[in-house]
Amino acid sequence: MAISNTQALGKSPKPGAFRFKLPAEARIFMVLLGVALIFELLGWIFVGQSFIANKERLIVMILQVSVIGIIAVGVTQIIIMGGIDLSSGSVVALTAMVSASLAQTSDFARAVFPTLTDLPVIAPLAAGLLVGLVCGLINGTVIAKTAIPPFIATLGVMVTARGMAKWYTQGEPISMLSDNYAAIGAGINPVIIFLVTALVFHIILSYTRYGKYTYAIGANRAAARVAGINVNRHLILVYTVAGLLSGLAGVVTSARAVSGQAGMGMMYELDAIAAAVIGGTSLNGGLGKITGTVIGTLILGTMTSGFTFLRIDAYYQEIVKGIIIVVAVVADQYRQRNRRS
Amino acid sequence: MLSLAPEKPLTTALSQPPVAAQQLLIDVQGVRKAFPGVVALDDVSFRLRAGSVHALMGENGAGKSTLMKILAGVYTPDQGVYRLHGREIALTSPLDALENGIAMIHQELNLMPFMSIAENIWIRREPLNRFGLIDHARMYQMTRELFAQLSIELDPQAKVASLSISSRQMVEIARAVSYNSDVLIMDEPTSALTEHEVAHLFRIVRMLREQGKGIIYITHKMNELFEIADEVSVFRDGHFIGCKQVEQLSHDEVIRMMVGREITEMFPKTIVPIGEVALEVSHLTLDGVFHDVSFSLRQGEILGVAGLIGSGRSNVAETLFGVSPASSGQIRINGQPVTIDSPRTAMQHGMAFLTEDRKDTGCFLSLSIQENMQISVLGGDNLQAGFVRQQALDAMCEAMSGTLRVKTPNLDERIENLSGGNQQKVLIGRWLLTNPKILILDEPTRGIDVGAKAEIHKLICKLAGQGVAVIMISSELPEVLGMSDRIMVMHEGRVTGIVDRADATQVSIMTLAAG
User: Is B376's Cβ below 8 Å from some Cβ in A?
Assistant: First the structure.
């Protein structure tokens, strides 16, 4: 039996084996190219111009999903670890409110904190990241200590954080933010922040103990504990990191909009989960890559741009996006089953 | 297995007294059932007479459960004839069996905790009122009548979740009786019951017997066999060994039928110098699971642990390793008292623990062999500025898999693509990389082919020779007898004896294990 196994593994040059040897990310990249090519084709037929060969459009395409991408980098880690985070969108809103309130200029008579205006940009940035970190810490601690399902724990934080974002200014938006703060979200800065974040966590997940433990816990939590991993501490750590990244996303969102609004980040958590799942991260845990998530994020961005480019109604976008998410998960399950048999 | 050949015609001739066909509820002939890699049952015959309690006995893995599942329609046999009331039948599902009058009372209880007793009993058959809605009053009345007949005193409206394990068992039995089943299959029904409750259960069983029902009773307990059973069928390694009237049997004869196998495998046991006491356990207790376990273990010694499933042997290992910390008792390592509250602390004290279930608590199936092997040594010298020193780890794991002869083209393969034996070697490698002083092995060779088994046995002896103190838990008596310096036997959460290698025989160990 052992011998037949070794033969089945790799080396035997079966025809068609090459297709299955591709890393998962390469397959997802093909999907991205496929989606782009479909829009390219439809573009020439219906609009009479190229979809891809347009630098502006490509930048906008990435720009509009950068915030989702930053969140998705955190959510990917949580999903790899076998969890889920529904709170990210609300955390974006709460962070946006708190950091915006500390980024106001003194030119404005009705500042949230009239004594705390014209602060150096580090203040709102640090406050925003701290809010995100605390939200993540709460998620992680509740999940680790009470052993309730992550779905419920983060659902609670989702509702509570959204409520706090509204309560913070009684629903009023926060405006008149400093130029330095606005610069965080200006131009292509969100794209840079997204890609740098992705790169940093790609390295961390691949080459540090933090990354190894994350995959191990997701692959088999009981085995991870027996292997000597402090599972609860690691759970808290990963949820906290994801919270921090949601906080960063909130800062970028408010800086780009040069305002803080309680309605920001609505449904972002679902887009981020979708990006991770489309990018090949398995909801069963133990499988996934940041590179896959980046490509998944770009697929979402391409679809949004493509539909706008073809002047198709936004409603259809959502309909199609929903279908694609389900198809991605079905494909994932199918892959898992195939591997097992 | 070869040793069975001369014995078999003898037992079949002796064991099956002629019975009038109409008295037979179940008559199974020549049943065979194979699973990938193992033949669970081979040419097995079994007869159940009306108005009798028929016990099934055998070691773990003897084939009792497989036979029972065939009788109850969970499995379909590959070969053989299954007659019920003299008619040949082919059951397709447990429901099909139930409708043919065969009810099984499961070891893991199968009740819905948040529904009432009555709802649990009459599910799928609820009495309806004229509006087509469930008539609860009548359902409760039916339940009360059923309970009166069995002298069970429970409120039909009570939620199952609020009941004790024994009451739940009574509900299960009542449900089985409510189907007017002719055959009731009970799988170790007394494992969770107190003496008083056992007496009640036996009263019910006798009553059912007088009503002409046939009861198949699976048990590991000798005293129960002699108290309740009329006949007993013994199984071993998937073979039917014999069927006898209980009154013609002695305690020892039953045990001999159960273990009568020769040790055909050779064990590479080498006698090595025994060193200082490495581990001393006194009065270790995990409330409700095992009690007052005391033993000591020396460097270079292999302590075998035997006992039936549910005897608490694996639980002791889990507690020693901090998976479920002890409620009381003391553990000393190298003479120092220690508190072990998590696997992490156990590892810091130089312990390693190969768990019983590779899939559930061992392998990270979606990860590579490399990741699986290195997971417990990602610290200390193997970290540099927060980064894992992958090259050094690769070299260590490469060398380890060479030593253990893991059969794989490279360590980047997923572990789930390996055979069971190779997976086990990877997990052993994981623990050897931690340089353990005390190695706990729970079923180190379960589900592994003979070749890999011998290699693992050699490895264990080699480690002992290097001064590692080894605890080896195993369901296979020959393995325990062949490998251990001493054998600790457990029964129902207590140590019933610690036997030296020289004094240990299959019969002596089995006698201690049966309590």
Answer: yes
Shortest Cα distance from B324 to chain A (angstroms)?
A: 11
CB A93 within 8 A of CB A159: no
Question: What is the pLDDT at residue B148?
Answer: 92
pLDDT tens for residues A87-115? 999 999 999 999 999 999 988 778 888 88
Select, from the ranges A312-326, B187-201, B426-440, the one with the highest average predicted confidence (pLDDT): B426-440
- Tens digit of each residue's pLDDT (9 = 90 or more) over B381-415: 899 988 999 999 999 999 999 988 888 888 998 89
For residue B125, give the DSSP letter: S
Q: Is residue A21 part of a domain?
A: no
Kindly list the distances between the CA atom of residue B144 and the CA atoms of A34, A141, A168, B111, B502, in Å, as whole numbers in the listed order. 68, 48, 60, 18, 58
**Rounded Cα gap, residues B460 and B406, in angstroms:** 16
Do A209 and B388 make contact, defined as CB atoms within 8 angstroms? Answer: yes
Cα–Cα distance for residue pair A18/A10, rounded to 1 Å: 10
CATH at residue A190:
1.10.3470
Domain of A256? 54-340
> Which residues of chain A make contact with B364, given a CB cutoff of 8 A?
215-216, 219-220, 223-224, 286
Is A21 part of the contact surface with chain B (CB cutoff 8 Å)? no
Report the number of distinct structural domains present in chain A. 1
Q: A5 and B418: CB-CB below 8 Å?
A: yes
Q: Is residue A31 part of a domain?
A: no
* Digit-coded pLDDT (tens) for B446-501: 777 667 788 889 899 999 999 999 999 998 888 899 999 999 999 989 999 999 99
- The CATH number of domain B1-101+181-191+210-262, selected from 1.10.3210.10, 3.40.50.1240, 3.30.1380.10, 3.40.50.300: 3.40.50.300
pLDDT tens-digit series, residues A255-269: 999 999 999 999 999
pLDDT on residue B151: 86
Mutate to test the interface with A, among B375, B390, B405, B432 (most CBs of A within 10 A): B375
Residues 383-422 of B with CB under 8 A from A: 383, 386-388, 390, 407-410, 413-414, 416-419, 421-422
| Cβ contact, residue pair A219, B364, below 8 Å | yes
**Whole-complex ipTM:** 0.84
- What residues contact residue A154 under an 8 Å CB cut-off, 6+ apart? A84, A85, A86, A87, A139, A143
Contact between residue A286 and residue B366 where contact means Cβ atoms under 8 Å apart? yes
According to CATH, the superfamily of the domain at B264-350+436-515 is P-loop containing nucleotide triphosphate hydrolases (3.40.50.300)
Q: Which residue of B has its CA nearest to A336?
A: B366
**Looking at the predicted structure, is the pLDDT value of residue A1 above 90?**
no
d(CA B466, CA B19): 61
Mean pLDDT for A30-49 is 90
Contact with chain A for residue B237, Cβ under 8 A: no
Domain spans in chain B, listed from the N-terminal domain onward: 1-101+181-191+210-262, 109-180, 264-350+436-515, 366-435
Average of pLDDT values for A235-258?
A: 97
Minimum distance, in Å, between the CA of residue B386 and any CA atom of chain A: 6
Inspect the interface and report whether the beta carbons of B410 and A10 lie closer than 8 Å.
yes
Say whether residue B455 is in contact with chain A using an 8 A CB cutoff: no
Distance CA A263, CA A96 (A): 10
